Amino acid sequence: MQQPADSYAREIPLLALAAFSSAIALRVCDPLLPKLATDFQVTPGQAAHVIAYFSVAYGLLQVCFGPLGDRYGKFRVITYATLACSIGSLGAVLSNSLDALVASRIVAGATGAAIIPQSMAWIGDHIPYERRQATLARFLMGQIMGIVGGQLLGGFFADTLGWRWAFVMMTALYIGVGLLLLGELRRNRGIDTVSVSQTTPTGTGSKPPPLWRQFQIVLGARWARYVLIAVFLEGFLVFGAFAFVPTYLHLQFSVSLTGAGAIFSVYGLGGLAYTVVTKRLVASFGERGLAAGGGALLCAAFLLLLFGATWAWAIPASFIAGFGFYMLHNTLQTNATQMAPDARGTAVSSFASCFFTGQAVGVAGAAYIVDHASTAWVFGIAALTVPLIGAWFAYALRFRPA
Questions:
Q1: Which of 211, 224, 276, 283 is geometrically suited to a Cys-Cys bond with 67, CB 3.0 to 4.6 A?
Q2: pLDDT for 69-119, tens place per residue?
Q3: Distance CA 81, CA 90 (A)
Q4: Tell me: the pLDDT tens digits for 178-191?
Q5: Domain 9-188+210-399 CATH superfamily
Q6: Is-contact 256 250, C-beta < 8 A?
Q7: Among candidates 231, 19, 4, 11, which has minimal Cα distance to 131?
């Protein structure tokens, strides 16, 4: 019998807490780039390898965690991956060169790859589609707060105790959250039992198909390919630009690294504002309106960053960017949880793989532009192209299979 969404009083908050930890790791290095560039005597673009290679590892390892979650249980995989994340963070604390720090970030990205995508897939297994977007928005609050925390803490530690302490904090956080998840896993032995009715292609509804078949199911679905292309382009264009916002504020307006991180953390407040009104927006505009509107708001945010005469313009720009991004991304996420229900863990992990591979390529491309031209070009390209992605996906939703 299907359990009501409201009855997951422990599981969803714990998953949100794990997402909080993972999101800090995703964004903590953004405000650290100028400090890392100075300490290791490299350019900001070279320092950005700590972001790009993290994203590569995060994206590529999805192909492993998705099938593992489908076969052995998503909550179980999330639990042990969270504990394993502490290894990469501890390695970053001990790094004495940029190469060593990049290697540690690769380990952190590889282990952290399981947390958010498998949490989304677990929600997809337990929450009916009509309530899923609102539930995912609740879960996203943990991720958004982690983004805010990563920006703030990265800038704070860069200006005060030093960048290593950011990774000390993350090591302790991963261990603490991992132990909480482990306690819940041991308390509730049936935590990975699927509640939402679904069957496998074999018709048994119990035994998952072989690993190769799970990927064949996902990639063989035309709608899944639309979603995967859209999220790759979103990661490429949006986060390639986002990664350099604190650096831009620091170099262009002489804002401290703490201040730059704090200003861009308003992006997270925009995302939180979206989660508060998600149900109302879905009812008023539908998924097509959210996708197109999110792209338009991101365009406005990048234009404010590009033409703002002072650092103060970055505050409303960051808020608009967060609200617009989650309008678009939450719509993509919700569709990802349903694009291949028979291999949901693999489907959502493929989604995350495309998203973070897009980020890695986007950050690398943006780093080249920053080192050879200016950050303004990065913002300008994003402003022109992101709304086209939102409009294209909104149009594609007209042809989504029932």
A1: 211
A2: 777 888 888 999 999 999 999 998 988 888 899 999 999 988 988 888 888
A3: 15
A4: 999 998 888 877 77
A5: MFS general substrate transporter like domains (1.20.1250.20)
A6: yes
A7: 4
